[in-house]
Structure formats: structure tokens, C-alpha cells
Amino acid sequence: MVATKEAQSIRSDISNDILTFIRILENSFDTITSATNICQILEDKSDIPVYGMTPSNNNYWGYETNIRLPISIIGGLKPIATQPSMLEFSIKLIADSDKFKHESFDPLVYLEFNIVTIGYFNGKEMIHSLHLDRHPDSGTSDDPHPKYHFQFGGRKLEEKINDYGQGMFFDTPRIMHYPMDFILGMDFILSNYYSDIWIMIKESNHEYNSLVGKYQDIMIKPYFNSFTNHWSARTPFHDRDWNTQDVCPQITERPKS
Description:
globular; 33% helix; alpha+beta; 257 residues; 6 strands
């Protein structure tokens, strides 16, 4: 089985964009070049990702990567004497070519996105972890799960830490957030952890801004269109291209006036 022509076209386009994006950032972060493995995955038209228990679908495409970036300054860090050392960014996503680049549909079918920051305090490794994922379509829970949500902690923290000190950790709240691919994920990381580099690049590199804007249109626009439709069209949740209540479980369906 090989990717459909439509999927191949999308994969090629994204591969070229990510390679360009990496080239823009490699002067600031030489380790980002390890993410070129994304391009190798996308260019292999026989690499068809499998989502859950569903049969293989050659309209699906996806990628995953893991990069490490040096970090030395983090604002508001506690304990104060902690010395930041490294930031790990990992992402795995799967998309359906039929819905990707559509202004109303959820652009992805799977997303796992982790930011793990590592530092040292009195010779002891310190860990901070943020986790963004997409709640499975078939997933059920007693707690509200926004379709895309950030959590402090997650599996990556559990894998790395066994001394919780005075910290207290639990599953909720899950903070709703728009989906992000590699490009938007790196822009998020730069803006929050490397703001001086982020500002410099945004002020000096038109190509960077164009790429970020392109993927904001693809990833973020449908997300907020779901909210716009809630207050304008007032169609029932199940009749919408992207159910607003999936995006934000607290949204209430009100009777038409």
C-alpha cells in the first residue's frame, strides 16, 4: 500500500516546509537538524501510519520526532538556584488528507506533544513536563476532556521522576488549547522559552513568519471556526463539521430563540 496522490502531494509540501523551517532555525539551534527525520518519513510514500485499531488508510500520513535544545535561563524558576540544562521536544501526529487544510474540520486524527525541561539543583535532576494531546474520538471519561488539551505532567514526567518532594500531581484540569504541528510547536517553544531568539527571527525573517502563518491557517483557524459557528449558526452540535462541545466540553447547547 502506498499513499494516495493527494496524500503524497500534502506530504511533499509539508516536508519541504519543515526542511525550510529547520534551515531557518539551525543557526540558533544546531540540534534541530535531527528533526529532518520528519522529511524522510513523509517522503516515504509507503510509510502509512496506523491510528488505533482502525485499518490502514493510505489517505493518512504522519510523522514523529524528538529533539533536544540547550536552555540556560527560565523566568520564575523555583527552586531559584536550579540550573536549567536541556529542553526535550517530542511530537507524534497523524492526519487525514481529506480533512487537512479544510477550514472547518479537525485537521488531525492523532496528536501527542511533549515538552520536558531538565535542570539541576544541588546535584539533583529536576524535571518539568507539559503534555498536549488529542483526546481519542472513541474515548470516554468521567472528567471533561477538551479535544486538544494541555496538562502539566503526563506520562513523560512519570517516566523520569520518582521523588515528588512537596509537589502534588493529578490529572485535572485539562486546559483546552489549539492543535499544533512541528512548526507551530517550535514557534510555541521559542515564544515561551527563547523569547529573545523568537523576537529576533520574527522581526528579521519573512519566510519564518510565512510558514508559521500558513500552519496557523491550517491548524488554528478550524479550531476557532468551531467557536464562531457556535454563536452564529446555532446548528446542533452533532451537525457541525467540528463539534464545539468536543473542543470545549463546558460549552452549552442553548435552545434557539
